[in-house]
């Protein structure tokens, strides 16, 4: 399973990338706004830090605007993947961008029918937001399972990119279900490392190491 970091904070992306565990990056307008920097500058810098797919989201909501903006974003760096909202105009734009050999990540997916249309339009990635489904009392993991099954049944090349991951168990379940990619916030990447028995065991080993005669 590939792991992307869901962030527009270049310092935390740099830190996670230094661990050697980051295959790509996803951003969204909220994350870029939080960085307080212009979209283009942020995406350019991220592409220097991580050698993998970097999703940058369009702001336009009409097909022509999405395609225009998508072409501009894709021109920033060959690794840029154009993130497009899952609306009718977005799906039309995905078809045009795909035909122009531009990679797309269809975002804000909350149902299997939506994901089927994205795959038919040629999306490179589909981003089901599992945490946001859980937030409203639904079952986000059930959607991941459905998409992996449906795409697998028809060998759609669109990759399931599990998004809106809130905690380590989400990641583990997505891996068990066969999601191609999970995009996770920096905070959750750090949580993945944590286990009290590791800390306790290390403290004991270090204490015992002092007793080893030289
Ligand atoms: C994915 O591409 C989105 O940027 C992200 O995962 C959304 O997560 P959130 O629901 O925590 O905002």
Describe what you observe in this structure.
This protein is an alpha/beta fold and 214 residues long. It has a single domain (2-209), classed as TIM Barrel. The chain is 52% helix and 17% strand. The protein contains eleven helices and eight strands. The chain has helices at residues 10-18, 29-35, 39-49, 63-74, 88-99, 112-120, 130-135, 140-153, 168-177, 186-193, 196-209, and strands at residues 2-6, 24-26, 54-57, 80-85, 104-109, 125-128, 159-162, 181-184. It has an eight-stranded parallel barrel, surrounded by seven helices. Helix 4 (63-74) crosses helix 5 (88-99). The longest helix is centred in the C-terminal third of the chain and has 14 residues, at 140-153. The model has no long low-confidence stretch (mean pLDDT 98). Bound molecules: erythose-4-phosphate (E4P). Residues 6, 26, 28, 107, 127, 129, 131-132, 163-164, 183 line the site of erythose-4-phosphate (E4P).
